């Protein structure tokens, strides 16, 4: 029978006949306790809805058992946040840690939520994305010796935890695929210029185009942050010119839909007059049955690895806290 009121360690002790100190150690998976005892205590705690008092925990141990993920609202809309959260929570399963989402709104500097978290010690670690070349958030966290993991890479010389997708390899392989399809000029709508993976995409496309003996261009006046209408209109304009691209590498599903729509508006038949290769991170994209080829980017797996490397950093590890996800090219022919 569930007790009335908020369950405490004493509540579980009364239900099990064990000492409060034993209950505490069992909930923290103390290895000196029998597995049967740990399982029994944790099962009862879950059944009665026990949650640790974070304020008391912080006063006693200096820890909060909280990991914060910083997300922009549009990252949630496009599915990135949903998949990342799914992976992180898998990594935190069977640990004492809880995941808390901190929103980053467009009128707020990205460093501000980081400063708030560190100054007030409201989490034991933080995860964020959109890494820049010399990201001030990474610099701040390194200087304050605060555990973190970043989705993406920076150019800071100090080793720090990150998980990234090999965007250079993706752009390289996608460009070679378009060349094999007969494309003579390929294009890409890039992320913002401050983001590190922008240069990775450019490097991969440039190298492949040079090897294949074809031309490449980087879309001007629009980027991945541009409204989809702006991307679509840009593609229409370029596709109608005699020197327009006949192949597109897309760095996101949303931009791919805008590119495909623009090509159709310009009278180009994708798969015949023009070809498109895009990253795919969700089943949503294929619901539109586009005539584009896709390369999977697994954000759930990225989330799992972000959670894992951050837990290791919190535990005091400092070596080998990076993970690179590689594209797999599985073309239809």
From TrEMBL:
It comes from the Bacteria. PROSITE patterns: HTH_LACI_2 (PS50932). SMART domains: HTH_LACI (SM00354). Residues 7-61 form the HTH lacI-type domain. Gene3D superfamilies: 3.40.50.2300, lambda repressor-like DNA-binding domains (1.10.260.40). The keyword Iron does not apply. InterPro entries: HTH_LacI, LacI/GalR-like_sensor, Lambda_DNA-bd_dom_sf, Peripla_BP_I. The keyword Transcription applies. Keywords: DNA-binding, Transcription, Transcription regulation. One of its GO terms (molecular function) is DNA-binding transcription factor activity. It holds the Pfam family LacI. This is Substrate-binding domain-containing protein.
């Amino acid at each position: 029978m569930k007790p009335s009121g908020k369950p405490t360690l004493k509540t579980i002790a009364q239900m099990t006949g064990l000492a409060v100190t034993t209950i505490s150690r069992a909930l923290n998976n103390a290895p000196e306790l029998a597995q049967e005892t740990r399982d029994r205590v944790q099962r009862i705690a879950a059944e009665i809805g026990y949650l640790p008092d974070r304020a008391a925990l912080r006063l006693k141990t200096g820890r909060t058992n909280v990991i914060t993920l910083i997300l922009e609202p549009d990252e949630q809309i496009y599915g990135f946040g949903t998949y990342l959260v799914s992976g992180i929570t898998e990594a935190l399963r069977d640990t004492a840690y809880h995941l808390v989402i901190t929103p980053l709104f467009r009128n707020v500097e990205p460093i501000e939520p980081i400063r708030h978290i560190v100054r007030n010690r409201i989490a034991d670690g933080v995860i964020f994305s959109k890494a820049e070349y010399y990201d001030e958030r990474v610099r701040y966290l390194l200087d304050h010796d605060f555990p973190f993991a970043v989705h993406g890479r920076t150019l800071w010389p100090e080793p720090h935890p990150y998980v990234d997708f090999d965007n250079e390899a993706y752009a390289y392989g996608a460009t070679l695929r378009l060349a094999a399809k007969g494309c003579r000029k390929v294009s890409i709508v890039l992320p913002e210029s401050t983001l590190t993976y922008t240069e990775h995409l450019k490097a991969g496309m440039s190298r492949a185009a040079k090897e294949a003996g074809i031309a490449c261009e980087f879309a001007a006046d629009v980027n991945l942050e541009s409204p989809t209408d702006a991307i679509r209109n840009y593609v229409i304009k370029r596709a109608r010119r005699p020197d327009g691209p006949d192949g597109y590498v897309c760095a996101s599903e949303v931009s791919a839909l805008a590119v495909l729509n623009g090509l159709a508006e310009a009278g180009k038949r994708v798969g015949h007059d023009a070809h498109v290769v895009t990253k795919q991170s969700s089943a949503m994209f294929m619901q539109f049955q586009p005539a584009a080829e896709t390369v999977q980017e697994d954000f759930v797996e990225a989330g799992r690895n972000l959670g894992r490397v951050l837990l290791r950093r919190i535990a005091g590890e400092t070596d080998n806290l990076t993970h690179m996800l590689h594209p797999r090219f599985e073309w239809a022919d």
